[in-house]
Amino acid sequence: MAEQKLDLGGEWFDGVSGTNSQSRYLTSEEILKRIENRKMKKLMEATLDEIEHEEKDNRTAAFEADIEEE
Question: Is the pLDDT of residue 64 over 80?
Fold first, then answer.
């Protein structure tokens, strides 16, 4: 039973046949592009987090000012 599950019929684990196995590798340009995309995503997330914190601080300060006025 275990041997039947391991027999992939000449295909790689990801379904790529042996003759096309090289296509699953990335070029250095593709890797650099992915790295750049991940950097940009992280920068955007950090910027959004900073904006959210600033807005929260502004709302908190406004709320505290309203309480002190009463």
Answer: yes
**35 pLDDT above the threshold of 50:** yes
Domain residue spans in the chain?
2-69
Q: Can you tell me which residue has the tokens 């987090």?
A: 49
Predicted TM-score (pTM) of the model is 0.52
Rounded Cα distance, 51 and 10, in Å: 52
Contact 10, 18 (CB under 8 A): yes
Q: What is the dihedral of CA 4, 24, 39, 48, to 10 degrees?
A: -50
Angstrom distance (rounded) from CA 63 to CA 69: 10
